[in-house]
Design goal:
The longest helix is centred in the first third of the chain and has 25 residues, at 2-26. This protein starts with a helix and ends in a 5-residue tail after the last helix. Helix 2 packs across helix 8 and helix 2 runs antiparallel to helix 9 (243-251). The chain has 256 residues and is of the alpha/beta class. Strands 10-9-11-8-12 form a five-stranded mixed beta sheet, sandwiched between helices. Strands 5-1-6 form a three-stranded parallel beta sheet. Strand 3 (45-47) and strand 4 (53-54) form a beta hairpin. It has helices at residues 2-26, 56-68, 82-87, 102-105, 148-154, 167-175, 186-195, 228-241, 243-251, and strands at 32-37, 40-41, 45-47, 53-54, 71-76, 93-94, 108-110, 115-124, 140-144, 160-164, 181-185, 203-215, 218-220.
Length: 256
């Protein structure tokens, strides 16, 4: 009888171990998404002194990933090819201060808006001739290639446009008097003109062009990886918890 009880006990242990092993094998691993970001847009996304990609967008997606229990890999991608890479499936989404526009919505799907911005007009610190967007008529204005800043300047009659791969190259040309002004998203304008060690004291923000832009996470049409529901739910949660405001105050200033 004792031997039979021992056999039964051993069989029970084996069954439990087998069941647990099966459960462990069946347990799904955390989803991982590859996110493209043009890390030349401080304070939204940029490479720090330690060669790490940091910024508002990076903290935002990491907070959302933690809330929704998925993993992210940030892939530094040049702006001029970032949308083509998404279309080719080289990554799952773009999080890079992408403005939601009607034209872009025809080709891509977007998350709920996560940031509001206008366009800042950056000039040299000693320039008092450019005070509003009207003063850009007859001036050469630097912009990043095919951004909403470029779109805004094209609407200003008489303004000459000069496009750059990254905003810092435009700012450098401004300091060197090769362009008269640079138009770029307001948080980025503040990052370069007011906070950058390279340009601090050399540049200032003259004014804003009110465009009422909103940024969103960008995915292929149909959201094949089903990332948007996770992003939207996480965004809602971190706003409710106050984590969004902490990220905003860290990189931008007082939260709206």
């Amino acid at each position: 009888m004792k031997q039979w009880k021992l056999v039964c006990a051993l069989m029970a242990i084996v069954m439990v171990v087998t069941l647990l092993a099966g459960c462990a094998q069946a347990a799904p691993s955390a989803k991982k998404f590859v996110i493209a970001s043009d890390a030349s847009f401080p304070p939204m996304e940029f490479v720090d002194e330690a060669k790490k990609i940091v910024g508002f967008d990076i903290d935002l997606i990491n907070a959302i990933a933690k809330d929704q229990k998925f993993e992210v890999e940030i892939k530094n991608t040049a702006w001029d090819g970032i949308f083509a890479g998404l279309e080719a499936g080289q990554y799952d989404a773009i999080l890079s201060s992408v403005t939601i526009t009607d034209e872009r919505k025809e080709k891509y799907d977007f998350s709920d808006p996560y940031f509001n911005a206008n366009q800042g007009i950056v000039v040299r610190a000693d320039d008092n001739t450019i005070k509003t967007e009207k003063d850009l008529a007859g001036k050469t204005v630097g912009v990043q290639i095919e951004t909403t800043g470029a779109i805004a300047v094209r609407k200003i009659e008489g303004a000459r446009i000069k496009q750059f791969d990254t905003p810092d190259l435009a700012m450098l040309d401004l300091v060197n008097k090769n362009v008269d002004a640079v138009v770029v998203d307001t948080p980025v304008a503040a990052g370069y003109a007011l906070q950058s060690e390279q340009f601090k004291g050399k540049l200032k923000i003259a004014s804003e062009i009110v465009t009422d832009e909103t940024y969103g996470l960008t995915v292929q049409k149909g959201d094949p990886k089903k990332l948007l529901p996770l992003f939207n739910a996480g965004l809602k949660n971190i706003k409710a918890s106050g984590e969004y405001n902490k990220i905003y105050e860290k990189w931008i200033g007082k939260a709206p």
